[in-house]
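Quick review question:
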């Protein structure tokens, strides 16, 4: 099948120019339009199939509501995706059922979605197979272990974990804990959670810092108490647990940041305001839609892997660790 990119190369124009000439979405000069139409005839390109009028105008958003998914966070993504899609004349079909590759394929084909955005990506996500078979534009917000042939965009969670550990190490902390996602998130090998652990662990080895990694369960206070007095820095990658972490430290008589420093990975506005690396949900959602629209305009897949660099904002919840308690015994009187 002749692609829109081949028509563009034959006519000596950009793929987007071919799309505009065929769809009438933007004004194209008569000469350019004539070259495009001549190339379409010469190559036998099916122009009708490429026009917007033949599309459903629906973008499928595959977001299974699984255990450990934080609704306040994912709704930030949903809102940004819906707003960006609306700007391009697309509606969003939210697919929340967790039926793996078969369910994704059925939902997209049943509703004739023009393309699909996939969230909550696993390291070995079975939905990747469906995306490759559907032959529709697709974008993943997240990176599987093998992203070859896919279009993916995400925060660089490995670098984000390293950035948090380096921030604490620069302040002098030598014993740190990572309070991560719920156990269910790690069991299903969710990519962002595993990459954060990898980033924290690699930076800890590089900086000579001892790090304890815990999946954060419902009893946050017990987890904090079990860490012991040597831990003076916390990296929290669990928006749901962040408020409970701060409350638990206060209940244990630990002051932030005088006794314990806290740095988090989270979207702005989700959870208490602490020093954090921001998860740019709005930007990621917008970029995913833009990448999908570019594929629709080109008429062929776009292989693109985009990792956004982490940016840490200091909000006053980190400081140098407290000095170690003195072990010198007082001298008895009279000696």
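Suggested answer, residue by residue:
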């Amino acid at each position: 099948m002749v692609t829109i990119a081949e028509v563009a190369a034959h006519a000596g124009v950009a793929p987007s120019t071919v799309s505009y000439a065929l769809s009438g979405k933007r004004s194209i000069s008569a000469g350019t339009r004539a070259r495009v139409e001549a190339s379409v005839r010469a190559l036998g390109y099916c122009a009708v199939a490429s026009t917007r009028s033949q599309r459903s105008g629906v973008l499928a958003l595959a977001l299974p509501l699984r255990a450990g998914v934080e609704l306040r966070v994912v709704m930030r993504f949903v809102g940004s995706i819906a707003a960006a899609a609306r700007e391009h004349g697309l509606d969003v079909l939210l697919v929340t059922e967790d039926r793996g590759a078969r369910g994704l394929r059925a939902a997209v084909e049943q509703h004739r979605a023009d393309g699909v955005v996939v969230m909550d990506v696993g390291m070995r996500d079975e939905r990747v197979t469906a995306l490759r078979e559907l032959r529709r534009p697709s974008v993943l917000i997240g990176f599987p272990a093998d992203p070859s042939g896919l279009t993916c965009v995400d925060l660089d969670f490995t670098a984000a974990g390293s950035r948090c550990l380096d921030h604490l190490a620069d302040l002098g902390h030598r014993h740190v804990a990572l309070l991560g996602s719920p156990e269910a998130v790690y069991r299903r090998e969710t990519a962002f959670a595993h990459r954060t652990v990898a980033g924290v662990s690699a930076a800890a080895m590089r900086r000579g810092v001892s790090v304890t990694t815990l999946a954060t369960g419902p009893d946050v206070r017990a987890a904090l108490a079990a860490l012991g007095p040597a831990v003076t820095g916390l990296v929290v990658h669990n928006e749901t647990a962040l408020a409970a972490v701060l409350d638990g430290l206060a209940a244990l008589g630990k002051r932030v940041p005088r006794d314990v420093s806290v740095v988090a990975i989270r979207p702005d506005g989700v959870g208490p305001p602490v020093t954090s690396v921001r998860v740019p949900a709005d930007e990621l959602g917008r970029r995913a839609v833009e990448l999908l629209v570019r594929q629709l305009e080109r008429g062929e897949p776009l292989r693109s892997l985009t990792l956004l660099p982490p940016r840490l904002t200091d909000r006053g919840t980190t400081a140098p660790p407290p000095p170690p308690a003195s072990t010198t015994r007082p001298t008895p009187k009279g000696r």
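Why it works: DSSP finds 13 helices and twelve strands in the chain. Confidence is low (pLDDT under 50) at residues 47-53.
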